[in-house]
Design brief:
- With 89 residues, this protein is mainly α.
- Helix content is 78%, strand content 0%.
- The protein has a domain at 32-89.
- The radius of gyration is 14 Å and the shape is elongated.
- The N and C termini lie far apart (42 Å).
- The mean pLDDT is 82.
């Protein structure tokens, strides 16, 4: 992966993390930095899953890839929020 790919993964990860956080209902008890990290990881894993399914490169906007990434980010945010909530009890 080239440096431009890494930079685009970070930028897309920020967007994916925020969208994933918006999808999860209620208040999340994780910081924005952790949300961005979850988004970056979700973007990278989502891209790999989309490539494996053969939907990573389509004509126009890759909606299926975005949905996979946002879903993974929402799962990550919810999982971390649940973990943080249990630690505070």
């Amino acid at each position: 992966m080239e440096i431009s790919g890494i930079i685009s993964a970070v930028v897309i990860g920020i967007v994916i993390g925020v969208l994933g956080r918006l999808v999860v209902p209620g208040r999340q008890r994780i910081g924005i930095l952790l949300t961005i990290v979850v988004g970056i990881v979700a973007a990278l894993i989502g891209s790999a899953i989309a490539a494996a399914l053969g939907v990573a490169d389509t004509r126009g906007v890759d909606w299926i890839e975005w949905l996979i990434q946002i879903g993974l980010a929402a799962l990550g945010v919810a999982a971390l929020d649940g973990t943080r909530a249990r630690q505070r009890r």
